[in-house]
Amino acid sequence: MTGHIYESMFPTPFIPQVGLFDFIFPSAPGVSTSKEFPETHPAFIDGVTGEVLFRGELHDRALRLKTGYKELLHLKRGDTVCVWGSNSIEWIFAVYGAMAAGLVAAPHELAHQYNNSGSSAMFVALENLAGFEQARAELERPLEDNRVILLCKPEHKPKGTKYHCIFEILSERAEEAEHFDGTECYETQFLCYSSGTTGLPKGVMTTHNNMVSQMCTSHICLDPMSSETDALLGFLPMSHAFGLMAILLQPLTQGVPAVILPRFDELKALAAIEKYKVTRALFVPPVVLLFIHSQNTPKFNITSLKSVFSGAAPLSPELMAAFHKRYPHATVTQGYGMTETSPGALQARSEDSRAGHSGVGVLLPGYQARLVMEDGRDAHPGERGELWLRSSSIMKGYHANPEATAKTMAPGGWLKTGDVAVVDENNRFAIVDRVKELIKYKGFQVAPAELEALLLQQPKVIDAGVVGVYDESQATELPRGYIVANPSLGIKTDADKAKLSKEVAAWVAGRVAPHKRLVGGVIIIDAVPKSPSGKILRNILRKQAQQEFESSAKAKL
C-alpha cells in the first residue's frame, strides 16, 4: 500500500555529489552546477556601516581561516564549532571558514546546545560575551580560552581580554578547502537546533547534500534573480535555518548581494532599501504587519522593492491583501519549511499570490508529500491530514538522539512535520492547523517543554504549563506561562499574584534568549490541567489563554 503521493510539478535538476563550499566556490571546472561570478562582485553589504565584502575576499579569508583553525586552534575535519552572534561580516567569516575547514557549524544560543553538540570551540559576538561568561559554569566539558574567538574587529576587542578576535586567527597562508565528494557529501555540515514536532531543542544534522539539493531546486519555482539588477535585504538571523539558506548561502549562487542587518530595525531597514535599491526582502508576518501600518515608509523611496518573501510562520490572507494594497509595486509570497527540510519544502508563486491564493504554494522540485490521517490512511483531496515530506533535502536525523529521529521519520524516508495541511485542485497546499504544540514567536521556535522545565527550577513554582497565545495586533503567538505557586508563599490577593507573576517573568527573562521570554504573561492558577497519564493538556490552557487574552484586549478598548 503506497498511499497517495503528491509530486512536484517541476522537474528535479541534477544534484552534484559535492561539498557545500565546493558548490559555492568550485575548486575546478565542472565540480558545481552553480554559476561563476567575478571575484570583484559584492557578496555581502553591512547595511549599517556600509562595509562591502567581495566574493573573492570571502573566498580568500575562508581558506586562510581554515589554516588558522588547524594551526592555532588545533581543530580538525569533523569537529564541531558553535557560533553565537547576530548577523555580521565577522559571523559570515567564521561560518565560511568552518565550511572550508570541513568543520560542523552549530549556530547556538544556550549552554544546552553547546553541551549537546560536542563543540570544540566557541565563536561569540561581543554582545553575547557577558551571557557566555555566565554560561561557562554550565558547560559539561572544559573550554580552553584559546578556543574562544570573538566575532569583532581587532580595534573593537575589549582591553585586557584573554580571547583572540577572528581576525587574529587569519593565517597568511590559504590552504585548499576540504572536499566532500561522492558519499562524503552525506556528512553533516550544519547543526541548527529545532524543537521538531515537540519536546526540547534537538540538533538537526543537515548534510552538504541537503544544502546543495536545496540550492539546486528552491530557485526553480521562484521569480529569477539577476546579479546585475537585484539586491536582497537580510535581517533574519543567519543562525536559523531560514536565514542560513536564504541569506548566507543561496545569494552567492545567484550573484546577488545580500544587505545584512544585525536584527530588524524599521528605520535602518527602510534606509537600506533606499540606499542599496533592494529588490527582494525576507520578512516574517510581524514585519509585514508593521509595514502595512508604518508611518515611516513615505519618508523613504522603497519603490525598488519588487518581491517580499514571508516565512517562519503563517501569513494570513488579510495581511497579504493589505500589503499588496499599500505596496502595489511589491508582491508578497510565502512558503513552508522546517529546519529538518533544510529548510524549504513548499513555495507560493507570485502569480498565485497576486490571484489571491494565500497558502504556502506548491512542492519544490524533488519533493514528495503525503497527507496522513490519524488512523494512518492518506487523506482524500480536500481532507485534512498531517503533512509528511520526502526529498534529498530532508535532514540526516537528530544529533545523538535516535529516539527522536525514529519518532519523526517514518519508513520510506518520510518526515512527519506535525503540521496539518489541505491541497486544492491545483496541488497548492495550505497549512490549516498543527499537531505539534510548538510556539512560533515572530518566526522563532519556542518549545513549551523547555520553558516548563525551567519554570520548575523556580523555588516559588511547583508546577507549570506553557502555551502560545495569538496576539492579532502583533501577528504572532506570545509565549505564556501558567504556574502553580508554592503554598508556603500564602498567595491570596490579586496584588500578591501580580507581584509573583512579574517576579517569575523577570526570572525567566534573565535565563533565556529574548524570543523565549514569557511576553504573553505569567498567570497563577490552582492546578495545571493534565491527563490521567500526567501529560499537560495544553489544548485546555490554549483555549483559556486565548479567552483571557481577548477579554483583556477588549477591556483596554
CATH architecture descriptor name of the domain at 439-556: 2-Layer Sandwich
| Main β-sheet, spatial strand arrangement | 3-2-12-11-13-14-15-16-17
Helix content: 25-40%
Integer average pLDDT: 91
Write out the CATH superfamily name of the domain at 439-556.
ANL, C-terminal domain
Report on the structure:
Keywords: Ligase. Belongs to the ATP-dependent AMP-binding enzyme family. It comes from Apiotrichum porosum. By secondary structure, the chain is of the alpha/beta class. The protein has a domain at about 440-555: ANL, C-terminal domain (GMP Synthetase, Chain A, domain 3), CATH 3.30.300. Strands 3-2-12-11-13-14-15-16-17 form a nine-stranded mixed beta sheet, with helices on both faces. Strands 1, 18, 19, 21, 22 and 23 form a six-stranded antiparallel beta sheet that branches. A five-stranded parallel beta sheet has the order 5-4-6-7-8, with helices on both faces. A hairpin with a 7-residue loop joins strand 9 and strand 10. The relative contact order is 0.10.
